């Protein structure tokens, strides 16, 4: 998602099992942007928590400082995990080096990895860039399969597969995921004569994104004035493609979007919705899109788990209780990240142990209660604190149950290092051309192919 847009704070509290969980503060996508200002490039976390006792003078001389490079909000500081780990390991001091813009973060990190620059002991990697980490940069990262505390079976199988090289090395430990749902306005659905109960709404389009477009046509036939069915053709394209086992690249990472059944399906469905006047012609995460959320100009947003925080921020108080969440037609994933240990880390053994602890189910659940970042560990998804979570802003929707169920049924897809380039052309240029200018989808597709060829050199 564009790194230029302003940052969004966490969404309102999410209740469940006697706990609260703020909505996701770290957005996922192309390129990643933060949703909460972190301030400062370096956070000395020993000064952030009263739970971590100050080390004695003799201990300071023997301490090991672990630098942790992150982007956006991973929730470890917010959940008190850094302080907890230092209390258990008094010889460890943790410094979080936090960058707001995810694309800037990755460009800096990948450049240092290629050129032999100084890197942190732990470096977070967003899913959109993990193919570079497991491909061209694989020899710069530590294989974590045999690290203390690491069991590859901890994470959902498709999550671990994303961070595994063709040779079988596990280079990243999963943090969170972005399973897909549909956020919808109950009041607008009611005015258009559609069901409003979340289970009934989900049944309208269950199993097929084409049914989602059919519902959009029903909505348009009786739509409240100055509203459209969904926000953007680009968002619909992303949602459809997220559930497809074949996306932009082949299993070996080769870019092959022109022959991909998943890309063709996503394009046809999104272009059909755009041509049918079902989309609002907006580019997601721009100021115009934010304003349209506030003004209630569309009835649905394709909604990975982190999107709930974005909606509640920009729809504001006037939208609370009017939005709800239904299951998506097909499960898909948009977002997520990993913790890696570069081979150039100063303390690789200690860094691997910390990364394993931070991504263990118990810690993932603690992060969920503070930031809403949905766990990628299967055991964490089954915990009551996740399963019983609800979101008051979205009419007390059972977000934990909805998103955890989607996460378990996601079909894995190969990820290529140029996927983000291709996606941006389709969503931010080609489909917008269809929406705003009425361009014939075939002509827009051909223009996209030419632009992608220019940008990728092939």
UniProtKB/TrEMBL annotation:
<dbReference type="Pfam" id="PF13416">
    <property type="entry name" value="SBP_bac_8"/>
</dbReference>
<protein>
    <submittedName>
        <fullName>ABC transporter substrate-binding protein</fullName>
    </submittedName>
</protein>
<feature type="compositionally biased region" description="Low complexity">
    <location>
        <begin position="13"/>
        <end position="24"/>
    </location>
</feature>
<dbReference type="InterPro" id="IPR006059">
    <property type="entry name" value="SBP"/>
</dbReference>
<feature type="region of interest" description="Disordered">
    <location>
        <begin position="1"/>
        <end position="30"/>
    </location>
</feature>
<dbReference type="InterPro" id="IPR050490">
    <property type="entry name" value="Bact_solute-bd_prot1"/>
</dbReference>
């Amino acid at each position: 998602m564009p790194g230029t847009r302003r940052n969004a704070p966490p969404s309102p509290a999410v209740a469940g099992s006697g706990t609260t969980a703020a909505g996701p503060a770290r957005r996922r996508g192309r390129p990643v942007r933060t949703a909460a200002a972190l301030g400062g490039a370096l956070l000395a976390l020993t000064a952030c928590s009263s739970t971590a006792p100050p080390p004695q003078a003799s201990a300071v001389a023997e301490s090991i400082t672990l630098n942790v490079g992150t982007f956006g909000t991973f929730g470890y500081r917010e959940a008190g995990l850094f302080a907890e780990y230092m209390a258990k390991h008094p010889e460890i001091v943790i410094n979080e080096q936090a960058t707001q813009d995810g694309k800037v973060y990755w460009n800096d990190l990948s450049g240092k990895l290629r050129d032999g620059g100084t890197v942190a002991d732990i470096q977070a990697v967003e899913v959109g860039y993990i193919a570079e980490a497991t491909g061209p940069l694989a020899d710069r990262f530590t294989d974590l399969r045999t690290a203390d505390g690491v069991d590859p079976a901890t994470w959902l199988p498709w999550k671990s597969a994303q961070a595994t090289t063709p040779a079988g090395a596990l280079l990243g430990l999963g943090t969170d995921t972005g399973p897909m749902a549909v956020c919808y306005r109950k009041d607008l659905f009611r005015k258009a004569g559609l069901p409003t109960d979340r289970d009934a709404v989900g049944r309208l389009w269950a199993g097929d994104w084409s049914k989602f477009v059919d519902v959009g046509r029903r909505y348009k036939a009786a739509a409240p004035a100055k509203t459209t069915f969904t926000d953007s053709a680009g968002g619909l394209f992303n949602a459809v493609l997220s559930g497809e086992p074949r996306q932009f690249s082949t299993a070996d990472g080769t870019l092959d979007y022109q022959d991909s059944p998943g890309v063709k399906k996503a394009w046809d469905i999104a272009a059909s919705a755009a041509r049918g006047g079902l989309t609002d012609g907006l580019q997601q995460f721009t100021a115009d899109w934010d304003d349209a959320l506030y003004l209630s100009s569309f009835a649905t947003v394709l909604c990975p788990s982190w999107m709930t925080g974005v909606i509640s921020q920009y729809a504001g108080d006037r939208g609370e209780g009017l939005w709800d969440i239904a299951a998506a037609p097909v499960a898909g994933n948009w977002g997520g990240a990993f913790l890696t240990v570069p081979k150039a880390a100063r303390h690789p053994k200690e860094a691997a142990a910390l990364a394993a602890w931070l991504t263990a189910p118990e810690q993932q659940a603690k992060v969920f209660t503070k930031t809403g970042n949905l766990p990628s560990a299967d055991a964490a998804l089954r915990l009551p604190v996740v399963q019983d979570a609800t979101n008051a802003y979205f009419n007390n929707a059972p977000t934990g149950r909805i998103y955890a169920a989607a996460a378990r049924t996601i079909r894995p897809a190969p990820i290529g290092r140029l996927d983000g380039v291709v996606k941006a052309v389709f969503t931010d240029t080609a489909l917008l051309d269809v929406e705003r200018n009425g361009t014939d989808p075939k002509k827009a597709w051909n223009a996209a192919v030419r632009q992608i060829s220019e940008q990728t050199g092939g």
